[in-house]
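The records we work with from here on pair a chain with its fold. Each token is a code from a learned vocabulary of local backbone shapes. A record is reproduced here so that you can trace the correspondence yourselves:

_____
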Amino acid sequence: MKRARRRKPLYADSDDDDGTSTPCEKHTHIDWCHRDDRTSVHTTYHELPASPNKRPRAASMPSSFTMPSLVSLDCSSSLYDTNGNVIEELEYLYQQFQLNEQQSDNTAVRERTPGDRPLLQWIGEADAYLAELLRLEGRGKYTAGICNCGSREGVFRCDDCRDIQLYCTECVVRAHLAHPVHRIRQWATDHFLRVSLKSLGLRVQLGHEAGETCLNPVPCWGDDFVLLDPVGIHELGVDFCGCETALPHHLQLLRARWFPATSINPKTAATFGLLEMFHTLSGQSKLSAFEYYAALARRTDNTGTCPPKDRYPAFLIMIREWRHLKMMKRAGRGNDVGGINATQAGECAVHCPACPQPGKNIPDESWLHRLFVALDANFRLKRKKVSSDEADPGLSHGYAYIVSEQVYKAHLAAYDQELIAMSSNHCNNHDAVKLATLKNSAGLAATGVVSVDCARHGMKRPCSTGDLQKGERHVNVDFVFMSSLQQNTPEEIMASYDVSCIYDKNFNFRFDKYGWDVSDHTIEWAIPKFHINAHRELCRANYNLHFIPFACRYDGESIERLWSEFNAAATSTKEMGPGSRRDTLDDIFGHHNWGKVIMLPGYLLNKIKKGVPERNAQVCAFRDYTESLPVDAVAEWRTAVETWEADRSQPNPFFIKRPAITQAAIKRQLSEEDADALKAGTAVVLHDKFSAGSMIIVGVELEELQRRLKTEVEALTDHATDIQRAKVQERQNVLRRRIDAWTEIQQLYMPGIATYRVRLISQVEDCYLPHNIPLLLPSAAASFIPCAPSLLQQEWRLRCAQAFDSLGDLRGHIEMRTHLYKFKDRFARGQRANTRANTIIKSVHAKIDADAERYRAAYAAIESLRPRLGSVEWREHLRPLLQADIRHVTEGDEGESEGRRTISWIWRATAAPAMPGDPQGGVDRSLQESLRVEWCKARARAHRWTEEVQLLQEEMRRTIAYHHWAAGWWTERVGKVHLERPEYLEGANAYARRQAALRKALRDFCVKTWRDVQTWVCLGDPTVNETLPDLQTVTDSVVSSVIEPDE
């Protein structure tokens, strides 16, 4: 895979002495580069100054790391001192390594050379290349016309042989007895013509060695045998052996590595090379059989003047049989006495070596052996109503990844009409629930598939994929999930699903109704990290993978990323019959899984290289944050979060409940305070109808009317009608009269304000217009005239409420806009419908702009009042509103990748700070809530990263253990079948030993790749907070060795 060019560090290996006597030490740094086909290693030696506070040493790092030490992960023997701290050597090495990595980023980029741009160099040689291609169209230097045998004219040349000499008929036939599919050209006076070896008299004799003569040859019936080969479609002259001891014709073809289309009178075959090539191409690029065969036919004849015989139906049969046989062979069914008929459900699947599998790679039960799975549906992998199970039953009946169709249909027939209605009353209206029974299925036998996958490593699980008849109904998901649980799963399961909050509600009730017992499993439900933003706040707290203990750092979205790969096959599989589609998907899933298996060494290594520094940073950040908080508060919070982790029915410490302060509530409070002051006789009455609080309230309302009127005035165009202008003028007049009346009352509570307003209007252009008249509320006037503190406090309270009201309206309008966009994309068709939809969306955009402007006005007023009131609590909830902040909860900031997506702060500003005079101490309560939630989140981050590093080490151990187990399993298959037939016995044993050697090679490669992991994990700050899982305690429980040394 092509990687982006990046700066490369330059290393100097010279031993120049600068005249000082500072001792230097050499340190080894190893870079691993993992590609699809191989892994390369780059070792660099760094000369670093010796630490002034440590003893001299002979080597900076252990010379070798054996596998038992990696598996045991014992950091105490060589990396920790008697006090449990990392020894000073490795601490110093870690600091120098980080310093070197920082310096390498500043290294100058190497200058480009002509070798970096080979295409530019080739352009000047293009004419020479073209001339050579044209030269090959002629005879070159072989123009004498005599064959090497010297007796005949040489006019034939092979396109597939490296030799380009011209030969006679007998010589070219004799040279191609073992190569009957090579393409031959004949020189016809002035150019070459294509001819076939069959036309030159070449006969392929089966049942004998090449060149041998059969005493009783039997020509193919009709003598029109067709062979499919990677270079084309060939018509050959084939003779079967008719001797007394001859094998059946189809076996003679198989012995020649030709795969027959039928077993009775075969007339078509494909070479093993062609089947292997298409098998790989279809798995890697999802190439359809039709496109491949069409390319093969064009490769044979690209002019249309001599098209090859159509063998496309035969090719479909052969490739389907080939896939099935390869799957059975790789699963060891050929080395089992029971053969194919004794295959168990899921036995042919390629398993994930890093996932826990009882009896194979886990020695005991602990949280480290929890299985992480993800559930999801894909509506791209649909199938049309073509063929039937009777006409196309398929070759795999639940042997690999697709569930058994017979058992699946029996379940649907029994419980399809007894569905429990899916309710989303406690959460948002998700499509997975809303469309469960409404999905359009006209003309479709399957609207898609639902699957249960390995969530940590992105692999398909055995017997964990089934068809959907409509949407994501519980009756379908339940069966597939239960089928997956039956495939050798551990006790603890962590399952993520887009709608876990809904699916989990009646889970036990549904399974009891089916008669399924899942009491042996402890299932923890979660919502994937990307999808959780679409859920309500309570769901985001209860099903959040960031908060659930022992969830590590997996995001639950791996199954979503896999669909993009498999969807490439949707265009071909939707046209297939039911059996053919199931077999094809099984093969594609198997190809994907094997690719994941061979990439696991590099994948896990990269994960732990990134995980260790992040773990250290999060642990240190949590420790520092804890030390800055009151001890009694931390103890109370720790008890609360540990109680919730042990029992989810307890109050969730991550869910914050605060009273929502609205503008209407503040108005009510101000009115009640005026009433209390009048009753007590302490109120200053300057107006018989308006109090100071009422004056502030009306001023804020007039400010809002000014903003609306200004928008209407700006919306008037040169082509506005008289009626439109008259309406706007009337609103201006009404607003002017209201402002005049209000300013008279304002003058009573803010003396001197009228004079300043007149001066300001005379200095600013268009300031006399009603929507531009400065109202000069206390927040704007306090800098040049004295204002009573009570007025400042009243406006501050009202402005805070106005800010939160504006944010609430803004969020609602953003949700509306997102819904309208989705509705438009899905249902609007044609110019008329799109125009109407755009008009509505434009009006919502205007409301969003108005909400934002109202919030910014409130925020400016709060910021102006801050120095005079000394309030800072509101800064935890309110921020300056930028245009980039106005986005939906599911949208990230511009330029953010999927893995680093952040939520806009407006979706987190759901609580208001307490108001002055709050008798319940709202400031302290709100601040305490914020500190508690942030402490819980910091603790969760430190826990998840610590768990991630521990689990990655365990996954490495499990991978090695699984390959070791698989090698032994294949070794046990030796000598099990064909005991009476030596040739078959030798082949079966050779295959079993080859597979065992392959697994040992994978095991040893993992050991080599991860040999320095223990050192890397133990580098850095080893001290952790007592609330975090202790690394040594966990690793001591892991079995110290899983591999016996090979003899």
In short: The mean pLDDT is 80.
